[in-house]
Every structure is written in C-alpha cells, then in structure tokens.
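User: Fold this; tokens only.

Assistant: Input:
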Amino acid sequence: MKADKARARNKETLFALLETLGVTQISVQFDGYGDSGQIEHVEVHSGDSVVEFPDPTVRFTRIDGDGSAVEQSLEDALDSR
C-alpha cells in the first residue's frame, strides 16, 4: 500500500533527523484519550538533559493526499505523525 510505504519513509526521515540533531528521547504528554486526546507538551532530551526543541523543517510524503511532499517544522511533524 502507498500509505504504508509513505509512513515507513517518513519514519526513516524523522529518525535520521533526530539522530543528526543528537536527540535521544522525546517525551510527549497527552490530555484525553482516543480520538478526543491532544498533545499538551513535548520535551526533547539529549542524553540525560532536556534541551530546547530543535527548529529545523523536515520533508515528508503526504499520506492522506496525493503523495506529494510537504515541509513542516519538526514540532508539527511530531504532532501530526
């Protein structure tokens, strides 16, 4: 399926970027559950330290559209994937 291939490529892209940036862990706090939940807070870690959220853009394959590429901030990419 095209969507499965796009998800796999997007995952590889995201993890490669995080490794390049030295990110070793991301902690995400949710509020709610199921379809009614939302992300409240994201912490980025490098080793044992919490660091500022990196601000690069990342290029993903659009999954819910025509398969075109879309650029978004790393924070938006984590929120939407």
